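> @MW can you paste both from yesterday?
MW: sure, first one:
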Amino acid sequence: MTERPLAADPFTTTNGYTLARPPAPPRRRERGPVWNVVLFVLTCFTTLLAGTMFSGSPTFDAYRASREPLTWMLSGVPFAATLLGILVVHEFGHYFTARARGAAVSLPFFIPAPPAIFMAGTLGAIIRMRSSVRDRNALFDIAAAGPLAGLAVALPAALLGLVWSTIVPAPPGPHLVFGESVLTRALVWLRFGTLPDGMLVSTHPMADAAWFGFLVTALNLLPAGQLDGGRIGYALFPRHHGRLGRLTVAALITLGVAVAAVLYVARPEWTSLIPGANWLVLAALIRFALGYGHGPVLDPLEPLTPGRRVVGIACLVLLALMLPPVLIRAD
């Protein structure tokens, strides 16, 4: 069988340059997708557990009253199936696009998380790049394919979940409320119009999962480091990639301070500072864990096509539309 051409194979660019194949890295012993499968199964379990905390589906909520062992876990199916669908499509959008563009990549590694630590039961997934990317166009395609593919699932899921959601009176005591982004506020308005005073939307678990899907997509689109948005930023502005990452961290710090100040003025309690601290933690993770760097592509002279530039700017607009200033707050 002939070897599949990768981005590191010799090729002639449209600029007339012929790039030779770089020295091959030491060959590693091939491993099967054992860890990929194990982590995915664990993520199915943790998201299913997380889903049991979200009610609003009469069919699946009925399983909570079952006396059969472990049957109560089936109440988490609508949330888990929706969120996993978004994540799987997102990651395989990267995977298949990378293979089509001649880059060697690993299968997705899903990251399970205890629901007590992260309400969604997962921290998403990662894919390892195992070869260089040919040019900025290929890099852009690989980076943008995941968020756009995931959004193609999250948006219909949100619409369907809101169709199955209801308006109820706000509970008298303190309760948790998911933060609104411009996109989620618009979707709720399209479904219910202006909510009466003292009323709120009791969301279906599918809508809750779509909210997390929007959040994961938005965080991935942050233009810093080797996040999807960072790769898109590198394809758009290769000379200013590091500066773009620093501006992103500065914006997150500013957002965190502003959110903490506004919420603390409204309710002078230390818990009011937590929603703002979330953004400060994220800024620190990008600065000290991800960094601002990005590996070069094989052909840095190949220009990005105009159509991709338009899509890249649209991805930055989607980031602004999907990112809620306050993730979760207590009312």
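MW: second:
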Amino acid sequence: MSKVTAFFAEGTEEVECLAVVDVLRRAGIEVQLVSISGKREVTGSHKITVVADKTYEEAEFDDSDMLFLPGGMPGVVNLTAHKALAELLLRFDREGKRLAAVCAAPSVLGGLGILNGKKATCFPGWEDKLQGAICTGAGVVTDGNVSTGRGLGFSIDLGLEMIRLLEGDAKAADIKSRIQHPDSI
């Protein structure tokens, strides 16, 4: 079974995170929701409090197949400022392990040099923060080990892409039809 670690910071866009977590879990993928805020209860950008599975300090990452960063403000600022997370993202990239980010969160990867020469997408207006990336404006883009999504409206599509990458086309198509995704009807 595949495992994804999704990070949640104070000010994260709740639906961008939880929509992805939801479709991944429907696919049988183990998801570890990790707070980087030092406590399990974290309040998102729209004042919805989420209880994470673990704090960063409690979590184990070596068995994760993919790390996922949702957007939202000031969530992305908080993700960017977390030094241990930056080191973890760089290690996963060096090892060729998968990374995913949506909305403004691809800027975290861009700031670390992870997007150099890669096609990527982000929330319009954040392209200059995707340092070294070839910005496509597409809804969802995968280039090598990195998948990016443009924003909240593409969170389910990003989750389906993550399923496809980790569990295959058939599993992604199955989940897509079960959730009544417009492309499957």
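> thanks! Helices lie at 14-26, 75-81, 83-94, 106-111, 155-167, 169-178.
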